[in-house]
Amino acid sequence: MKLFRQLSTRRLVLLVASIAVMAAAAGTIAVTAFGGGGPTPPPKPLAQAIHDALTAPEPQGITARIKFTNNLFPSGALLGQAGSALMSGASGRVWITNDGRGRLELQSDAGDAQITWNSTHLNVYDASSNTDYRLTLPAQSASETGKTKSPPTLDEITSFLTQLGQHASVSDAQPSDVAGQAAYTVSISPKHDGGLLGSAQLAWDAVQGVPLRVAIYAQGDSSPVLELKATGISYGPVSSSDVDVSPPAGAKVVDLTPPKSGADNGSKRSDVTGLDAVQKAVSFHIAAPDSLVGLPRQAVRLVGGSDHPGVLVVYGEGLGAVVVFEHAVDTSANGNGMQTGALPPVSLDGVTGHELATQLGTVILFDRTGVSYVLAGSMPPAAAEAAARALK
């Protein structure tokens, strides 16, 4: 699709290294990347296979049947969410036009989940809770509007893969049979600082250049934590009625769009870094020990607006880093104002927090002495809890 083949070399890094985000944001679809009795393409160097995918003729549209697997949340990680198609996985369909619109529909006993997108908005409707999650996408700059980017050259892709190889192990382009389609599959895994991430896999149509399967694996697990694949696919025009679908009128709306930065939210505020400088800029005590669970403190940065400034503290590097966000408790919003009802409680030395434990990492939210904390890292719950206890 357009987004896939117009990626710059820098964005191609995000495509390979952050494959799950790419799948959700770009509406990529997938097909099973392992044996289905169909044809396989000839062996080809990875750089050449990627270049051919980015320069392949653009399909008029895509229609596919898909299967979504979600083993991210262990039993008990989320309270009352087991029935959601988004939480437990499901089968469904996807439609994608060649002008940047699409719809992905999943069916389950609890009701459908539906994701729709265009060039300006992303909507996720979860029928199990009758909730419509809305996100306004960043607007293109005037210089980008209507501008067609050239795909990276073969030399640029080769150079990128060489640089990537310094930080990650990247497989060759493996010829595969993808639901009857000739395809290539590539696997990438971090060489160090990968946290709980084991590897990611991407398969794409060898002729059409369309992404066909994405999968994320945790360390030591041969089954994917997250996988989106298609069980059947066809190329051709897609009707607007297939993608221009709205949630029910009575759905609860949750707007996930970050607030726009005000005049005092600009670069001058974001340039305040270092523990001493940031501490002078906020009224609450910053908990930022020199190290956290063995990881050295790397950065302290002021974030947010003057009405409610926050602090971002980073420990370690790469995917294995621990990130801590701190801000004064907003009493007008009843504590930190975050929805924690679906998260199990966790005891942190006399303070009750709420924990989201997944196969790829842990997030803990808690308040202590007038400060709200959000701690996130690609680590097991026990390590995250030890880190949270050390924030005093």
Short description:
It contains ten helices and 21 strands. With 392 residues, the protein is an alpha+beta fold. The longest helix has 11 residues.
Provide an overview of this structure:
The chain has 392 residues and is α+β, with helices and mostly antiparallel strands. It has two domains: 2-255, outer membrane lipoprotein receptor (LolB), chain A, CATH 2.50.20; 263-389, 3-Layer(aba) Sandwich (Protein Transport Mog1p, Chain A), CATH 3.40.1000. 18% of the residues lie in helices and 35% in strands. The protein is built from ten helices and 21 strands. The strands form two sheets. Strands 1, 2, 3, 4, 5, 6, 7, 8, 9, 10, 11, 12 and 13 form a 13-stranded mixed sheet that branches. The protein has an eight-stranded antiparallel sheet with strand order 14-15-16-17-21-20-19-18. It is globular. It starts with a helix and ends with a helix. 35% of the residues are buried. Mean pLDDT is 83; it is low at 1-35, 263-268 and 333-338.
Strand and helix map with partners:
Blueprint: H1 2-5, H2 9-17, H3 19-26, H4 46-54, E1 61-70, H5 85-88, E2 90-97, E3 102-107, E4 113-117, E5 121-126, E6 131-136, H6 154-164, E7 168-170, E8 174-178, E9 181-190, E10 197-205, E11 211-218, E12 226-235, H7 240-243, E13 252-255, H8 267-270, H9 275-281, E14 291-292, E15 295-303, E16 310-315, E17 322-328, E18 345-348, E19 351-357, E20 362-368, E21 371-377, H10 381-389
Parallel strand pairs: 6-13
Antiparallel strand pairs: 1-2, 1-12, 2-3, 3-4, 4-5, 5-6, 7-9, 8-9, 9-10, 10-11, 11-12, 14-15, 15-16, 16-17, 17-21, 18-19, 19-20, 20-21
Helix pairs in contact: 4-6
